[in-house]
Amino acid sequence: MDNYLYYKYIHSISQFNILPVTSRCNFHCLFCSHKQNPPGLETLTIEDLKPSDLEDIIDFLDPEKKIVIGESATRIIEGEPFLNSYLTDILFILRKNFPSTPLQITTNGSLIDEKIIEKLSHIKPLELHISVNTISEKYRKKILGLNTCLKTALEKLSSYNIPFSASIVALPHVTGRDELEETIMFLDRTGSEIIKIFWPSFTEYTGENPVRYVNLDELKDFYKHIKSLIKTPVILEPPLLDDVTAITEGSVAGSPGDIAGIKEGDEIISIEGYEPKSRVDAFNKINSLKNPAVTVRRKKEILSCNIIKDKGEKSGLTFLYDLDWAVVDRIKHVITDNSLIATSHLAFNILDRALKKEGLDARLLPVKNLFFGGNIACAGLLTVDDILMATGKEKNFNHLLLPSVMFDENAFDLKGKSCFDIVNNRGFKCDII
Questions:
Q1: Is 75 found in the same domain as 16?
Q2: What are the CA-CA distances from residue 138 to residues 145, 167, 363, 378, 400 (Å)?
Q3: 384 with 272, same domain?
């Protein structure tokens, strides 16, 4: 591993508590983001992590935070963790060094059999995030490029009491709405704690691919329909919200929130006397407290309960992701009368509502993701060139606020450009928030 890759690898571990174990994948998904990248985008691959490699890096992990395997927060490509033949050995080493630290693995589930599940049952606390997409063998071949049966593995996880959540990249025009519903109903019966439905994303480099043709209005209608059929919390990603009201999507079955009686649609209006500013704020506040007293609004009723849990223990309440209020607090500290706040199209309405809630008459600029194109509309994939294009005709400002998620730890974007390129190009002051 060269010095640059090693630096990025250690940064992933120390900054996000994410431990990359492989860049290899056994699937060829229609919606794979790596096949849709613009030319020139830097991506990094690693060789399979070996148990002997842990000795030099394990001290960079934080035992007070969940250790995550199989999710990317940097430019390192994360593959299918179970392709690494040493994975269970690595997990046992982590458990030996961090006896009570939760471990999370994101996997496509295709390589999980009962032998592996039996080993995983000895590494608790452990949770799996499984990219299910469809349980139909016919459509798994068509969508994922590999004809594998996932039903047995999911049923075995439940019998070994290994908690898992599931995700689906929704392609109802490929599988049919009935197959999408059948998959979700199966996951509900099998014990998935949460089911996430992803609206497929595509770039201008996607070509003629079925992911281009998902009707968002139809998907939102299906989302409302399926929520009415099952108790398992269902999350739509991205949620396409336009408010910051702390309304729950329900509670994981058997969780402290479920036992306390909190239901889908309940609005959290008070937590130990504290009024949450957003869904994310409510989620974090409740999870941080021991036995929090919570007041909810359920239609016209005001109800109170205690969520019996330890400090730092998850409540089991689920929320759509709206806004981390720390962003608003940072804006309040640096904003001036001549500030312009650059934001993604997805975040524009939420941030506008949040700032007005704080009494800030802020000027927001939604920025198009021109580098990726397609339906990409998130701040994390914006570039300096996107910002320069969007601000080209804007007037009467001398201070630009930029979302921190579009930059790496050295303030470089995905194309290797810095916020200082904006300063040098346009001459106004920039702050990253």
A1: yes
A2: 10, 18, 50, 33, 51
A3: no
Torsion over CA: 76, 80, 84, 86 (sign) = positive
Please count the structural domains in the chain. Answer: 3
In a shared domain, residues 50 and 28: yes
Return the beta strands (E) in 272-412 as ranges. Answer: 293-298, 301-306, 317-318, 339-344, 364-367, 399-402
pTM score, two decimals? Answer: 0.91
Same domain, 139 and 181: yes
Final residue of a domain: which of 318, 334, 355?
318
Per residue in 388-401, pLDDT tens?
999 998 989 999 99
Question: 168-211 pLDDT, tens per residue?
Answer: 999 998 999 999 999 999 999 999 999 999 999 999 999 888 88
Query: Residues 346, 401: one domain?
Result: yes
- In this structure, what token pair is assigned to residue 195? 């089911």
DSSP string across 81-150: GGGSTTHHHHHHHHHHHSTT--EEEEE--TT--HHHHHHHTTS-SEEEEEE-S---HHHHHHHHSS----
DSSP 8-state code for residue 166? E
d(CA 403, CA 386): 13
Task: Please name which of 293, 287, 240, 289 lies closest in space to residue 269, comparing C-alpha atoms.
Answer: 293
CA distance 229 to 222: 11
Q: If pLDDT is split at 50, 70 and 90, which confidence band does 163 have?
A: very high
- Report whether 128 contacts 71 (CB < 8 A): no
Same domain for 102 and 174: yes
Structural domain harbouring 268: 250-318
Distance (Å, whole) CA 260 – CA 368: 43
113 found inside a domain: yes
Strand partners, 198: 169, 237
Regarding whether 228 and 92 lie in a shared domain, the answer is: yes
Q: Is 391 within a domain?
A: yes
Asked whether the predicted pLDDT for residue 216 surpasses 80, the reply is yes
The pair of three-digit structure tokens given for residue 58, joined into one six-digit string? 């394990």
The encoded tokens of residue 245 equal 């009201």
**164 and 69 inside one domain:** yes
Which residues are CB-neighbours of 228 under 8 A, at least 6 positions away?
none
Q: Is residue 243 part of a domain?
A: no
